[in-house]
Amino acid sequence: MIADIAHRTDWAEQYKRKLDQVARHNQRENSKRRDWTFNPGDRVLLKNDDGVQSKMAPLYSGQYEVIAVRDNGTLVLNKGRYVETIHIRRVIPDKEQRGEGCQQVEDL
User: Fold this and answer.
1) Residue 12 three-state SS
2) In the CATH scheme, what is the code of domain 43-98?
3) Taking 50 as the threshold, does the pLDDT of residue 104 lie above it?
4) Which superkingdom does the taxonomy of this entry point to (predicted)?
5) What are phi and psi of 31, to 5 degrees?
6) How many alpha carbons fall within 13 Å on the CB side of residue 89?
7) DSSP secondary structure string, 20-89?
8) Which tens digit of pLDDT belongs to each residue from 30-39?
9) What letters, b where the CB count within 10 A reaches 16 and e where it falls short, cover 22-61?
């Protein structure tokens, strides 16, 4: 030991500093997150994540209907013959909800 001085920790300051650090990290991680709001009856596309895919394979499958939206970040989708619970990060809204089905500009 270089100096014979007892170390004193201000636990309240350490706790406040850790909370600030967590808030900064959460803000950075969520900065590029899309905030979609889904309601029952909305149409969504499901991301294909079945491992290695070819270049020409579609990125998203189907047009599924949302049956329920749960508080834990999951959606219940109607997939025809069965229903499936999917995490909200695996789906995107269908074109009409993303704004691509909007009015077209008239030709001049």
Assistant:
1) helix
2) 2.30.30
3) no
4) Eukaryota
5) -65, -35
6) 5
7) HHHHHHHHHHTTT-------TT-EEEEE--SSS--TTS-SEEEEEEEEEE-TTSEEEEE-SSSEEEEEGG
8) 887 767 789 9
9) eeeeeeeeeeeeeeeebeeebebbbeeeeeeeeeeeeeee
